[in-house]
């Protein structure tokens, strides 16, 4: 099979002249398309969707809009432009030239990092594949598909690195990325949050706000990597990740807007009345927030981790905004505070910072996500409703690290298993919450129409009107 | 320059309600004009050159907000960092209170009739910028962009000054120079309509390096002197700000004072849509004020060279060129010597003593019959370059000409945008 690569796969990695890479992709590309057809958005292969395609990395080239069928989407391979004479700026190799090839001694760890990142990309497409059937509007349907194709492109970006720099092992890992399945018991995705279901659109918005933001922080940390191709790849992925977080932040914001509007119309904060009016009550939103926040902060890993120390010291993975920090970038004599439970109380304990780097990244993440919760609260405040959403304590509902198994309330008190059981339905979405949200989900796809439980966005995509035909169903 | 007295400018702002603080704009901005704190992302009006590079990557649309402001009252970074939402557009009364002359406000109001509301969904007024093409004409040559800059392999390239001549008559409050830069053996391929960045030497009062200033190339693709690796720029010495107070423009004075043999740091080239059509029957309509004539000179000169070599079949060239007075009009002399059957020139002077003010829009209305024919002609391409304040007036005049000739502007405007037939470059 002959493929015109520069045409089919927009790229800035000189693909048409790299025979080895071409051969690898010739194998992989049909399998990828099979995976997309099997596991990509359900029943949507023939739709023309108003999508953004990156055709180059400059500002004009990376946001080209037009209606395309998703299986024909031009998944490209892009690296941010190289920085000349880039130096490693943290860890034991600080000051050395950044690596253009993988150093043998770090091969296994780098491969593991890339595979773990790569595995989340197809996983989220799988998690979201049925959502198209219950889209609250054409605008939202289009945003879902945009998120999906870009997750697909992120998979490509990681597979490119595996094929280009990891030889046969890399090709095998590339295949395995297409074989694992989200939620499947015998061959699940690597990280647990990516085996959870995304059963409804509220979960989708929460997922894109919280869990894609984990993606942002992981990519930011990898964008500092001493392995230059990984740094350049992830930098470009960040521009797309931003769209996913936008879908989440504005999606939840629009749900809040609509709920507040109905509360003011009915002059009530009675959950039963609000639900009867077909919108999602604020306490339910709070429980969804608690769930997604806590599941996502688990993704940063154990609070004390020698792997994290190794990844940092060897230069594989930096901190968020490493380049903007002013310490010694080696951290051998620094310490950091992590939480543990002592005598039934949460207490801080000082540990070597190198071992606590997962916690450092988690805390940076928490700060960033709380800022957005504050912006949601502004919507509620503007509507004049005395209610505030709040991110739960970071020890709440944790399943990884020192806090796994400890029962902690959203406000940070250690509690007994009995207290937990008595309150869990107030803190996390109950089966009946989920059933209620699911009952609101119905397909609403006439241009300009929106489901009752969500407000329209303030503006369309790419300066198009809100009632534009973002998806043509043919 | 025409309308230089208007003390208003369009300030670029980010809507804090819609923005999700994703940092994409800050990472994209080629001149470092965007910054943030824990609360907001903000644009430095001193640095932003309206290059629009941040607009397509923004996932939210919050980046695409503009306010007419008196330049001296531009919202500072500190003000912007404190916002929870964008301020309303200033009312006429507020603008007057800020010291803007009533005539300037009237003039600006005529150019931009709608007062922008905070809610972008409610924007319904005339927005000239939305008619500007982001695609080049189909027969444009392929441009090279961003060969030198903060994100390229080399941050800048050194060029040598090989010419510096005055192109306006001698006057005390205006001084426009034609400057030739040679790149020696370094690659710097440009097309007519592209621009380059000049990094002035030294630092500002805060000790930071000056950001590059962008200038349109005034020479054709094969060099100011054909076959040489050089190009020319048209630069007006900035001696006063928009309020008429004395301010020496850092880059423009540096450039106008250059001597032959001096070296300058250059970035670019920039621009991939404001490019001339090349097919032999294409017509070009050029509408400009002051140093906005630079790309028009480049296109005209390329056409002139093509015509001399017999490679040109007969598309029309039409030029609408405005300045305050004839003495201030760059290249007035050379323009007069171009053959009338080669280029159709309409000059408009807004400050000729004893004569009524005449703007490029007036000249366009006088020639509406010819313009209507060209608007209808799919082979005719329109280019507008000059101060931001002229853009809306010019595009509205095109609309009026079209409507009076029985055309539907909504569909014509959309078609011209889609087919790369209307290009706006204003600053």
Task: Describe the model.
The complex is a heterodimer of chains A (474) and B (427). By secondary structure, chain A is mainly α. Chain A has one domain (5-472): Ribonucleotide Reductase, subunit A (Orthogonal Bundle), CATH 1.10.620.20. Chain A contains 13 helices and five strands. In chain A, helix 4 runs antiparallel to helix 7 (228-266), helix 6 runs parallel beside helix 9 and helix 6 packs across helix 11 (357-382). The model of chain A has no long low-confidence stretch (mean pLDDT 93). By secondary structure, chain B is an alpha/beta fold. Chain B has three domains: 8-104, Alpha-Beta Plaits (2-Layer Sandwich); 157-270, Beta Barrel (Elongation Factor Tu (Ef-tu), domain 3); 283-426, Nucleotide-binding domain of ferredoxin-NADP reductase (FNR) module (Rossmann fold, 3-Layer(aba) Sandwich). Chain B contains eleven helices and 15 strands. In chain B, strands 8-7-10-5-6-9 form a six-stranded antiparallel β-sheet, with helices on one face. Chain B has a five-stranded parallel β-sheet with strand order 13-12-11-14-15, with helices on both faces. Chain B has a two-stranded antiparallel sheet with strand order 1-4. Mean pLDDT of chain B is 85; it is low at 1-6 and 109-125. Chain A binds chain B through residues 58-60, 62-63, 80-82, 84, 216, 238-239, 241-243, 245-246, 249-250, 368, 371-372, 375, 378, 456, 458-463, 466, and chain B through 17-18, 20-24, 27-28, 38, 52-54, 56-57, 59-61, 64, 84, 119-121, 130, 134, 145-146, 151-154, 272-273.
